[in-house]
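As a warm-up, study this chain.
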Amino acid sequence: MSYQPPTGSNDPTYQTPQEQPYTQYPQTPYPPPSYAPPPPPKKKRRTWLWIIVGIVALIIFYQIGNAALSQTSSNTTPQATQAPTGSTPSSTQAPTSTPTPAPSFATFGDGTYQVGKDIKPGTYRTRTGSTNCYYARLKGFSGSLGDILANNNTDAPAVVTIKPSDKGFESQNCGTWTQDLSRITASKTSFDDGIFIVGTDITPGTYKDTGGDNCYYARLSGFSGSLSEILANNNVSAPTIVTIKASDKGFESKGCGTWTKR
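Now compare it with the structure written out below.
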């Protein structure tokens, strides 16, 4: 339903309104929006990297300084002074000496041996006596008497020289043979039965024994056991006197009691 203006008004001054023509207003154009790209992101400063580099540099400088200081100290450190002598106690401990290792000697026991393969040539001794000891130097292994170069029976310490030309050596009930030729006597001027090394076990000089039945003694120029190395010998049943020379190599005694230097 549309509005209708009133008509037939009694007001003489009333005028019917006139319709105004439509006036078009000019429109002001809006400027297009301007778009600015966002600023580039700021680069982060790698502060932590420089901190690590600085720490590493400090460590290197510290180590170099310590090395230089140590070198300087070692060059300027005075030598250690010797411990004072006298009654003044010293806290310096004396250096311990390294013990000299005991020498080793070739040894062998009872049996029959081939010289050059089982045992080496040389001079050997038994350092203690052994009952019913028998030994023999051999030129063969046939078992015949012809293969025996020299032999001996003894209950006392013995000495024997095995030559490079020997083929074998036999030992029965003799114990241990050794190349340890050091002294075995308690006194070098008094001894009993056995084979002794002059200058090592006994001293040269004139000796007298206490005597015994079937006493045998011999001055020796060697220990091969052959007759050619007997300088002088004797069998007696009474006390006797013998002079052992400085040139003698050995002396053998069996059943003669005790010899004492006069």
